[in-house]
Amino acid sequence: MRGGVSISVASCDRNGMPQLVRAIGCRVSDDGGRVTVFVPEAKSQAVQRDIFASGAIAVAFTQPSTHRTVQLKSRDARVSALQADDAQLVEAYRDAFVAEVGAIGFHEKMVRTLLSCPPEELVALSFCPSEAYSQTPGPNAGKKLEAGE
Amino acid sequence: MSAIKLDTIRECFEGVIPAVLGTADLAGMPNASYLSQVQYMDRDHVALSYQFFNKTRANLLANPNARLTVVNPYTGAQYSLALQYLRTETSGQLFESMKAKLAGLASHVGMTGVFKLLGSDVFRVTEIVCVDPDVAPPPPPPPPRNTLAALRLCSERLLACRDLAQLFDETMACLNEKMGISHAMLLHDPQAACLYTVASHGYEQSGVGSEIALGQGVIGVAAREGTAIRISHMTAEYSYSRAIRQQAQDTGLGHALQTGIPFPELAESRSQLAVPNQGCERLICVLYVESPQDLRFTYDDEDALVTLCGQLAMAMHIMQNVPVPEPEPEVEAVPDVQGPPLAVRHFADNDSVFFGKLRDQGRGRSGAVGTAAGFCRARQDSLQQSRTAPGPARAPA
Asked: Are residues B200 and B339 in the same domain?
C-alpha cells in the first residue's frame, strides 16, 4: 500500500451519487489501524463534502504491473491537514509510482502530470478500515479479506 | 449535457490506464473498482465490461448512479463522468464486440474459459468534467496523418482495380503508403471454416497460404464473431490477463487453461487490429494489421479500416462472382517475309485471287504462284470482311 500503487478514493452523497478522486500517497499508522491518503484539495471538494456528511469512504489500492488490488472501507473517515513528514511521503510515492508504471511503458511526464499537486494544496483523508476486499481480477474478485490474509 | 463530448475523449477508453468506477449501495457505502474495458458507443453512451466485480454489480442493480474516472494516456488529463446505468446486454453487436476483444485476449494467453464477459453494462453519460482544467497538460502528439484523406486516396485506388490479384496488391500497398501501416495481412474465408492468407506486407515470410481456424487468436475470434477487435497496448492487457491466469491456477482452475499462442508474425507486436468483413451476409475476408508500437491504432484508424474493408469485401465479392471476360482472339502474327514484293490480284467477276506475276493473261490465268503467307493474309483479310475466299489460286472457269 505504501509502494507505487494506484490509489482511488470513492465517496457517496445523500442522493446516492458516488464521487471519485485519485490519491497521491498514503500513510499507515504504526499499529496498522489507521490509514491516511493524500488528495488534492481542489479535485476532492465533492469527496470532502460527502465525508463530512457521512464518514463513508472506500479506497482501492492496485499495483499496475500485476493488477493485484485491495479495497478498504470505513464509515469513520475524516478530513484533516497533512502532518509534518507527509510531504516527504508524497514525494516518495510519486517516485515509486513513476518507477512502477515506467517499467511497463508509461512516460514519466504523463505520470507526473497525473500526480501533480503542490504540497500545500493537499489534504488528508484518514480512516480506520472496517472491511477489506480482494479485487484482483479473477475468480476471487470481491472476496472479503479476513484478518491475516 | 457537458460541453465535453465523448467522441472527443475516445483515446481515454483505450484501456491503457484502467478506468475507475465508483458505485454505492443503498446504505450510502461507496465502492471503487478498476476496469480494463470501457467501450465508446456514441456521443452519450458508454458500455463497461461486467466480469468479476460482484459488489459493483449489486450496487448498480440497487442504485443506477455511478461515477467513472478516465485518463488520457498521452497527456495525463483526468476526466470525471457521471453515469446512469441503463441495462445489461448479453447478446447482439455490442456484446459480441466486447466479448470478442476479451476472447481474443484470453486466447492469446491461454485464458479461454476463464476470462469471460458476462454482460455489457450500458450507461448514459450525463456529465463530463475535466478534473484538472487549471493544470495545462502537455499537448497530445500531432496525428501523423489525416486519416480521412488517406482513406479517400485508398478508396480511389481500390476502385481502379480490375482483378483480385491487383486488388490484394493495391490494398497492401495503400495501407503501407497512405496509412503508414507497415505490417498487414489479408485472409480469405472460402468455406466459413478456416481462413487462409492471400496477401501480406511487411513480414520476413509472406505467410501466403497459411491457415488460421475460426476462433483462434485475435484474427479467428474477430472472424467468428463478425466484429472488429483492436488491442492497443499488448503489455498492459497481457499482464492483465496474466494476473487472472495466475489467480485461476492458484484457485484450481488451471485445467481450463490453454497453451499460450505465440505471435509468429511479428515478434514485438504491441498493437493489433483485426477487421472482418461480410458481404451479402457471409464472411468474405479479414484484414489484420499490427505494429511494434504501442497505441498504434486508434478509434479513428478502426473506423477507417472498417470502411475501407467494406469496399474491399464488396469488390472481392463482385470479382469472385463475375466471370472473367474472355480474352479477345489474337490476330495470328505474320512472320517476316523476305524477298521481292508479291503482286496480288483479285478478279471480281469470279472472286479469284492471284499471286505473283501472271504468265499469260491471254491464255487464261492459270499458273499463278503465291506464298503461303500471302495466302494467309489474304484469307484473314477476307475473314475480317466476312467474305470467304474461294480457295487457293485456281483457274477461272
From this structure: no
Dihedral pair phi/psi, residue B195, rounded to 5°? -105, 145
Beta-carbon pairs below 8 A across chains A and B:
160
| Statement to judge: residues B296 and B170 lie in one domain | yes
Which domain does B193 fall in, by range? Answer: 147-233+270-321
Q: Is residue A1 part of a domain?
A: no
Q: How far apart are the first and last CA of chain B?
A: 102
In sequence order, what are the residues at sequence separation of 6 or more whose Cβ sits closer than 8 angstroms to the Cβ of residue B90? B118, B119, B120
The verdict on B163 and B274 lying in the same domain is: yes
| Cα–Cα distances in angstroms (integers) from residue B352 to residues B110, B180, B361, B381, B388, in the given order | 85, 69, 14, 14, 11
Q: What is the ipTM of this complex?
A: 0.92
Gap from B35 CA to chain A (nearest CA, Å): 9
Give strand pairing partners of A20.
A10
CA distance A148 to A139: 20
pLDDT given at position B222? 83
Cβ contacts of A136 on chain B, cutoff 8 Å: 243, 247
B20, B23, B24: residue with CB nearest A8: B20
Q: Is the pLDDT of residue B153 over 90?
A: yes
Give pTM, 2 decimals.
Answer: 0.70
Asked if A62 lies within 8 A of B31 by C-beta distance, the reply is no
